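Per your request, structure below.
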């Protein structure tokens, strides 16, 4: 199993996802500012993984606070929470995890040192819960995959795998469960410009586990669907609004439109913690805009001439009506039926 975040020897170790597949390198994180940097620079990325990383980050911050006064401790901890909130705006898991750690600290009786101990245990619990949730999503996904007699060819976008979670993955979790159940023949992985999480991370995960994978460029997806090469599309999510509108990696919306045009089922796989009931529709979801260099440069190669302008939204919003089902750890639901979980 691939675990992108590990607690070991009193430190957090992150798989440096900016180095995969060229190099498998662990980064040791001892301070909250380094965890904030790791989230912002996408050493660790993926909505659930960001939440777990933030939970450990909150403990690392708590560990740095030198006071036995609970009020002062909580005040400083809230400041650290603000630091982590400013790393990336779209994945709701980040904010949910910070809030859960703050609430735990506020509600825990005892000395500051005892609270710190409880915070570490809470971060570990959040980590373990996410792995179990992803495994449940994976297995629940089997219930809604097309019942085709032949094994399925599933297209996915970006990386919603073990690397994007605490382990096992959401979209790739369904793919892993389908592979284990001998329901899958091949994964088609969109490379996913501009950061290429599909070509680099999803492909790496599949190769690690012997799952046949074909990497395609994002602009090949429609052609593959038209040629009858794809039986289903499964993607992850960063934030889902109450009406089922879903924010996910840029390019997901166009993939959903193309799937609809070819009458191919389009699934979103995500834990309940990704649903933001504070937002009525996807129009209210903040879309992160990232450094233009991600668009004009691949590795050391600059793609464009001087003098051009850029736009780099990291996510887009797929309207609920383009989503066949949202696969959660409690089962697959229609996008318009999320209120049952509120
Ligand atoms: C398991 S959902 C992961 C989700 O996060 C990714 O974004 P990023 O790589 O920028 O963190 C992408 O939207 C995935 O679907």
């Amino acid at each position: 199993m691939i675990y992108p975040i590990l607690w070991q020897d009193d430190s957090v170790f992150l798989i440096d996802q900016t180095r995969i597949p060229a190099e498998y390198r662990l980064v040791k994180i001892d301070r909250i500012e380094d965890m904030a940097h790791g989230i912002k620079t996408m050493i660790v990325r993926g909505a659930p993984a960001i939440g777990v990383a933030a939970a450990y980050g909150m403990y690392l911050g708590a560990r740095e606070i030198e006071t036995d006064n609970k009020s002062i401790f909580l005040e400083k901890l809230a400041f650290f929470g603000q630091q982590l909130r400013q790393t990336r705006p779209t994945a709701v898991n980040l904010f949910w995890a910070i809030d859960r750690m703050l609430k735990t600290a506020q509600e825990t009786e005892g000395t500051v040192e005892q609270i710190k101990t409880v915070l570490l245990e809470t971060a570990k619990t959040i980590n373990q819960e996410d792995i179990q949730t992803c495994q449940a999503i994976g297995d629940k996904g089997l219930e809604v995959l097309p019942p085709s007699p032949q094994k399925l060819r599933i297209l996915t976008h970006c990386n919603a795998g073990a690397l994007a979670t605490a382990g096992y993955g959401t979209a790739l979790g369904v793919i892993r469960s389908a592979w284990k159940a001998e329901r899958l023949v091949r994964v088609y992985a969109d490379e996913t410009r501009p950061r290429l999480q599909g070509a680099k991370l999803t492909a790496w995960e599949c190769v690690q586990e012997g799952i046949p994978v074909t990497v395609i460029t994002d602009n090949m997806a429609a052609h593959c669907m038209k040629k009858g090469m794809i039986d289903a599309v499964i993607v992850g999510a960063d934030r889902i609004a109450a009406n089922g509108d879903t924010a996910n990696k840029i390019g997901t919306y166009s993939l959903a439109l193309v799937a609809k045009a070819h009458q191919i089922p389009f699934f979103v796989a995500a834990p309940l913690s990704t649903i933001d009931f504070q937002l009525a529709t996807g129009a209210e979801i903040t879309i992160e805009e990232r450094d233009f260099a991600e668009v004009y440069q691949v590795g050391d190669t600059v793609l464009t001439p001087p003098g051009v302008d850029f736009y780099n939204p990291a996510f887009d919003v797929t309207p609920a009506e383009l989503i066949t089902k949202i696969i959660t750890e409690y089962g697959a639901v229609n996008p318009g039926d999320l209120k049952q979980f509120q």
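The longest strand covers residues 184-190.

Regards,
D.
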